[in-house]
Amino acid sequence: MRTSVLEEVGGWDPYNVTEDADLGLRLTRFGYRTATITLPTFEDAPETLSDWLPQRTRWLKGWMQTWLVHMRHPVQLVREIGPRSFVIAQILSAGFVVSAMLHPILLLAGIYLMLEMAFTTPVSGWSVVLLTIDMLNLVCGYTSFLALGWQTLPKAQRRGFWRIVLFTPPYWFLMSAAAWRSLFQIYRRPHHWEKTRHFRTKVQ
């Protein structure tokens, strides 16, 4: 990270709890390009729900903060980063948070509609339409999530990938809990930083 560039774009935002997301977007607005380092991190991931939930809450809250800050002037944002990057920014920030919030509603609505269609004669046309939209959203969401996971996993770790497939719906219920929790926090405690406990650091 070049210090001169960091100073040019305003430095780290001390009030954003996902400051790297904000900084990445700000660098793009100033005409710079960023990339992800391909080397692995040796920091341990959360292993318990009590550690995982606050971390995901913090990340989602930070993406909300980033979206709210940069969308103060959306037309200017489009001019500075271009339409393509603008759409990607919407998907990665607001889109991800909203999809996490809506997940349980979509899943439960799909189950209800299927049960209704199984025990109701004749089947309502609106029920068919709503179920189709609902299932398309769920299938596309799960598929994109699993495809991304498959691509990023080393070959040695892909053997147990079927477990990830089975646990995707419960995982997204937990993501939804984190999203709703982050919405509450951004209203009541917008700059509260929930630190993630780390029990070991692997050093080579």
Question: Could you give the topology of this structure?
Answer:
Layout: H1 3-8, H2 19-29, H3 49-70, H4 74-119, H5 125-152, H6 161-166, H7 168-188
Helix pairs in contact: 2-3, 3-4, 3-7, 4-5, 4-7
User: Spans of 5+ residues with little confidence (pLDDT < 50)?
Assistant: none
Question: Gyration radius, to the nearest Å?
Answer: 20 Å
The span between the termini is 23 Å
Amount of beta strand: under 5%
H-E string: HHHHHHH
Structural category is: mainly alpha
Main beta-sheet annotation: none
Q: How many strand segments?
A: 0
Q: What general outline do the C-alpha atoms trace?
A: globular
What does this structure look like?
The chain has 204 residues and is mainly alpha-helical. It has helices at residues 3-8, 19-29, 49-70, 74-119, 125-152, 161-166, 168-188. The radius of gyration is 20 Å and the shape is globular. The model has no long low-confidence stretch (mean pLDDT 87).
Provide the descriptors you would attach to this structure in a database record.
single chain; 204 residues; mainly alpha; 0% strand; globular
Summarize the structure.
The protein has helices at 3-8, 19-29, 49-70, 74-119, 125-152, 161-166, 168-188. The protein is an all-alpha fold and 204 residues long.
